[in-house]
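Onboarding guide, step 5: your first structure request.
Type a short instruction followed by the sequence, for example:

Predict the 3D structure of this protein.
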Amino acid sequence: MGAGGLRRLFLAVPLSDQARTILAQALPPLPGKVVPPENWHLTTRFLGYVDLVTAERITATIAQADLGSRFEVRLGEMGAFPRPVRATVLWLGVAESPPRLADLNSICEEAAQAGGLSAEDRPFAAHLTLSRIRPQQDVRAVIDAYQPVPVSWQADRLVLYQSTLGRGGAVYTAMEEFEFKVSS
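The system replies with structure tokens like these:
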């Protein structure tokens, strides 16, 4: 719990253990502060520091929503924010981004606003953060050298995570899980 009972929270679709293993073995050395494989996920909505009542409103809204069925996610090309020549974040995109991730983002956005949070001002872009780079640097050579590997998994749940920041990096704790339906 943070100051004043606030928790730093986000909603995300986790990778499968197998996808984490395959990707961890295939990635080249990366610049910056590399995100450990156990923290890899696809964020559907960052909530920030919220109190317990707000978190409960958000999770109640999501629990009542139709999150749909399980779906396949496949990772694709490497990229950088804000752009490769002056990167602060290195990421992997989602190949043929399934509309399901955008749908989940919409559900999470509605839940966040129902909980009293302001609307997200940035457009949703499904991605897996690989490293954070400070100071910014040119990563075009890293991106050009990356050979995408066939990494895919069956997304089976949405997770509310608490992010605890510390000297050793962020620690993510699953606070609540929302299972997707099993396709018939």
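Each response can be followed by summary notes, for example: The two ends are 40 Å apart (CA to CA).
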